[in-house]
Design a protein that fits this description.
alpha+beta, five-stranded antiparallel β-sheet, 5 strands
Length: 301
């Protein structure tokens, strides 16, 4: 009886220590994803990054990213089914023609899988994932960069969800190819180099996923306020929106007509006040970010 109790206690301790490690690693991953998403979200808007080292909003944003990522997995399955069916049919035809599965044997080489994954990962990063860096300082910009169609993705929630579904499917595909190549036994120097490079590219895709989430998905509406924190009233014709409330300062977007000159010109500016000076926040309504950004895209001469 004593031996059974001791064994049960030891297993419980082992399980608890394992879960503690997983919880710590998961919390750090959520923290890092939330930090990246918030930082690039503020960079997209053009707000000075008032981000402290420790902030619970990083974990909440990371959790929102994880939930959004998980909600897209059924879409990934639906998008992938036609391609999987087509691949299976082609595989069956190739199997019959090669009499014994030579096509399958050809793809059973780890180097071929790894370098195929490298090609796909490079295309995904270069064609889709890195263009989000072109979207920055939008609240004060005269136009929104086209950035390979990301302007439409930024303004349309359905297109943004589909775009993120493609990014997620691409990440799962390259990650699967990396795991499959590493598990094959017939490793060579060529295949090891391919697996190492593919692993690095998959890690870059993992980092770019929360970055794209922060640029294209996070907080696509801004609260319209009655004044600037109870400290400064708005002039006639001016409107203001709360953009960011950090640990040290609060930032608003102020928009209004410039009375100087014959033709009124709409001016936009970002106003930041110290957090300790803000007395109250009166929210009137929430406006879509798309309505606050320039309507036309940038024209490349």
């Amino acid at each position: 009886m004593t031996n059974t109790y001791d064994e049960l206690t030891a297993k419980l301790k082992e399980l608890s220590s394992g879960w503690a490690g997983y919880a710590t690693l998961g919390s750090f991953a959520l923290y890092a994803a939330g930090y990246l998403a918030l930082r690039f979200h503020l960079t997209t808007l053009g707000v000075g990054t008032d981000l402290s080292v420790l902030d619970e909003r990083y974990v909440f944003t990371g959790a929102r990213f994880l939930i959004f990522f998980a909600s897209l997995l059924p879409n990934v399955v639906l998008v992938s089914l036609p391609f999987l069916l087509l691949g299976w049919l082609l595989g069956r035809v190739a199997w019959l023609r090669t009499q014994g599965g030579r096509v399958a044997a050809w793809w059973a080489q780890p180097g071929r899988l790894a370098w195929l994954g490298v090609v796909i990962a490079v295309l995904l990063i270069q064609v889709l994932m890195r263009h989000c860096f072109a979207l920055h300082n939008l609240l004060l910009a005269d136009c929104v960069p086209a950035a390979q169609g990301l302007r439409e993705v930024l303004f349309d929630a359905n297109k943004a969800a589909f775009y993120f579904t493609v990014l997620t499917a691409g990440l799962l595909l390259t990650g699967s190819l990396c795991l499959a190549a590493r598990r094959l036994a017939a490793q060579t120097a060529w295949s090891r180099a391919g697996c190492l490079l593919l692993g690095l590219l998959v890690a870059i895709q993992f980092l770019l996923l929360p970055v794209n989430y922060g640029v294209l998905i996070v907080d696509k509406s801004l609260p319209k306020v009655a004044d600037l924190g109870g400290v400064e009233t708005l002039k006639d014709g001016q409107e203001a929106w709360l953009v960011w409330e950090g640990k040290e300062g609060v930032t608003w977007l102020v928009r209004g007509a410039d009375p100087c000159g014959d033709t009124p010109v709409i001016q936009r500016k970002l106003v930041t006040r110290p957090q300790k000076d803000v007395k109250k926040t009166q929210i009137i309504r929430y406006d879509a970010l798309a309505h606050l950004l320039p309507a036309g895209p940038c024209v490349v001469p």
